[in-house]
């Protein structure tokens, strides 16, 4: 009779706090590891700085004005007069496409505005200008 009462008193306890710590550790580990898996394919450009900036949207197309004045649509070089046709083609595929205008800070202001004007005239409703955040 004495043995039975000892067994009842010494039941194991389930410690949930260490399990919660391990789950949070795994969550943070997987979140941090997925951040380094994203690879961004853009052309290196010396961007101007701005205090208020936000990151790119997932469905976006980069339009870059290089330091020598050439225009790049994603990763291919094209003249400014063909830019409108290419923008119309992309808008035909997906109408809510965001165009990110990236202009080198050494490029004259007028060239960047000419590219922006071509984007707007070709029907692009969502155009953003890329800048670097002030540190």
What does this structure look like?
By secondary structure, this protein is an alpha/beta fold. It has two domains: 2-35, no CATH class; 49-133, Nucleotidyltransferase, domain 5. Helices cover 40% and strands 19% of the residues. It contains four helices and seven strands, in the order ααββββαβαββ. It has helices at residues 2-9, 17-35, 80-93, 109-121; strands spanning 49-50, 60-65, 71-73, 76-78, 98-103, 126-129, 132-133. The strands form two sheets. It has a five-stranded mixed beta sheet. Helix 4 (109-121) links the parallel strand 5 and strand 6 (126-129). Helix 3 (80-93) packs across helix 4. The longest helix has 19 residues, at 17-35. It starts with a helix and ends with a strand. The relative contact order is 0.17. The model has no long low-confidence stretch (mean pLDDT 82).
Q: What key phrases describe this protein's structure?
A:
transmembrane transporter activity; five-stranded mixed β-sheet; 2 domains; membrane; protein transport; two-stranded parallel ribbon; alpha/beta; Nucleotidyltransferase, domain 5; ExbD; 135 residues; Biopolymer transport protein ExbD
């Amino acid at each position: 009779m004495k043995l039975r009462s000892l067994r009842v008193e010494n039941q194991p306890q389930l410690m949930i706090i260490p399990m919660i710590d391990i789950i949070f550790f795994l969550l943070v580990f997987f979140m941090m590891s997925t951040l380094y898996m994203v690879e961004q394919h853009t052309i290196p450009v010396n961007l101007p700085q701005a205090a208020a900036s936000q990151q790119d949207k997932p469905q976006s197309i980069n339009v870059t004005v290089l330091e020598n004045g050439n225009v790049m649509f994603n990763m291919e070089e094209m003249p400014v007069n063909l830019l409108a046709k290419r923008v119309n083609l992309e808008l035909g595929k997906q109408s809510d496409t965001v165009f990110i205008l990236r202009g080198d800070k050494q490029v004259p202001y007028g060239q960047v505005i000419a590219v922006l004007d071509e984007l707007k005239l070709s029907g692009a409703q969502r155009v953003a200008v890329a800048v670097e955040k002030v540190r």
